[in-house]
Design goal:
Blueprint: E1 7-8, H1 11-20, E2 24-28, E3 35-39, E4 42-46, E5 49-56, H2 61-68, E6 71-85, E7 88-105, H3 107-120, H4 132-135, E8 137-151
């Protein structure tokens, strides 16, 4: 990282950024170019690893790309404001970038993943009807690496 003064070193602080982030940007491997999609998400720590959860249709480009190659990069960022600086205008932000592997999950793992998503989206404890899992695929992304960066005002 070029600007070490902006690096977030603490895992707890990076996880706090995930808590504040409303949308996860998921980058997938496609033959012609990377494919990036914004998604609602949830997360938890499992056995010392950070696991992110996303859901979507059981078919389509994202589903096919994840099934073909589970290697992913994620970006979670929080924009706070633009500010004037001595050199012009800059952005106050926090961000976390991670790399890992996505896998489709079913059964109780999917129920847990959906609960994590609902909790992060502001609906903790919401009941999930069983039919939701017949039309929705759930993916768990286990991060191998995570870095964080911020610019303070």
């Amino acid at each position: 990282m070029r600007r070490k003064d902006r690096e977030i070193f603490s895992r707890a602080e990076m996880l706090a950024v995930l808590d504040r982030c409303p949308v996860l940007h998921l980058a997938l491997n496609a033959e012609e170019s990377p494919y990036v999609v914004p998604l609602s998400f949830g997360w938890e720590e499992r056995g010392g690893a950070v696991c992110l959860y996303v859901h979507g249709a059981m078919e389509g480009r994202r589903h096919d790309l994840l099934a073909a190659d589970g290697r992913v990069t994620v970006l979670a960022d929080v924009f706070h404001q633009y500010i004037e600086t001595a050199n012009g205008v800059s952005c106050v932000y926090e961000s976390v970038i991670g790399t890992g592997r996505a896998e489709i999950i079913t059964g109780m793992a999917a129920v847990n993943g959906m609960a994590c998503i609902l909790r992060h989206c502001g609906y903790p404890g919401r009941k999930i009807p069983p039919e939701a899992f017949r039309q929705t695929s759930l993916w768990r992304i286990t991060l191998d690496a995570m870095t964080g960066k911020r610019r303070r005002p």
